[in-house]
Amino acid sequence: MVDHVAKENVNQVVDNGKGETGPEGGGRGYELPLLLFGGFRTLIDRLHARLATEGHPDLRPAHGFAMQAIGARGATASEIGRRLGVSKQAAGKTVDRLLALGYAERADDPADARRKLVHLTPRGYAALARSAAIFDELRAEWAAALGADRVRDLEAALRNVVPAETAFRLDATSWLGTP
Question: Positive or negative CA dihedral for 84, 88, 89, 91?
Answer without folding.
Answer: positive
